[in-house]
Input
Amino acid sequence: MATFEILGSDHDETRLVGAPALGYSLALAGHPHVIEGQPDGAKYDIRIALADLPVQHGLRFSEMPDQMNAQALAISLATAYRNTRATSSVESIVEALPDAGMFDAGAHVLYARKDVDPVQMEYVWVAIHRVPDKYLVLYHTVRFRSADVSMIAWGHLRGSFIAEHAWGARETPPAIWPASSITRASAKLDLTDTAWVDAKQKATEIEQPTAALDVVALLRDEALAYASPRASVGDALVRLRDRITNIAPSISSVLLRNLDDCRTFHDLRGWVWQSAWLLSDRPSRIPGFRARFSYGNPYAPFGIGAYTVTVGVDDQIDLLHEQGGKQRRWIARAEPVVATTLAAGLVSSNFPAPPSVLVGRPGTSGIAIEVPRADGTIERASGFPSPNYRDVSTMFTHIVSQMSGDSVLGFSLPVDTRYVSDAKEIS
Output
């Protein structure tokens, strides 16, 4: 184990976390502060929470003999870590670090935890530093819930620390966020006031977005590029412009209008967030609703019955609960995060792919998701709950809790993300 310390105060947006005896330090953004405890059997030399969003970092050093190839060792250690903690080793691939930076080798992997809430994600970053006759192995884990941090926001957050590990004495943290007219200087991905004005103007010009899910999937991949906020975008803009033009030619001129303002990946991730918001926060062209989620069996003799959550074109959410021949209904206003979480969740689940290929006994509760398309059709996916739809399922479960308290689920979930406002029962 190594002795860590954190410099600065809890009021600082960026602080240095270091192990002075080893000459190592890491700059973390997001108003980091130390937290106590060793959760879930994991052992850390230090645990850090961010005040700006619900994310936790854990750091630990260990020593190992230098007899094995450093890169092969990093892959092996990251794989072992994943295999003991992930819901699936097939969906989460261990990869070598595209750039190990100040380290000799490294590997990383992102997966959903199998022993806790299935929407808790864990990122493991294993890096190896060679010293005389041994390796120093750093385990850096990051935990967050997919309901709180979308994959686009995760790309922004991960970019903030991947290039901030360093060897050698440092007393002040580096400037992580470059100046930007698009993206705020914050670990929580958000736009500047000017960029929000531009986003709303674009929304008035794009009345009927085409291929929105395909474009959002492409945007997510750009946000997840392994690059620090300060890194130059290089030729990424040319490639991105060509791909969006090919996927959605009818909206590309408006969507791409300010793309050339991006100079750094900090700019680009803000532009991606702006575009994803623009495409996801769009009313369905079909009167009535933009998405509908159902769970349960209203005729089951035991359990909670069934509920249906409908997100309307006017951002009203309707919750209908059916059990034992009785019905109750609530309405509420959707917060903007509903649209972005829904769009990202549909992409990550490969909607309308079936939720599960498993066959349940008669009466087993299932889920169904319906989304209207711009051409007037409704796509539907249904089946039994499974990890590929965890983001969507979890958001709607929290919406049910925030609208009805414990009346539907039988318990209330903690409010980490506020999805609705002005909830009230109407029948």
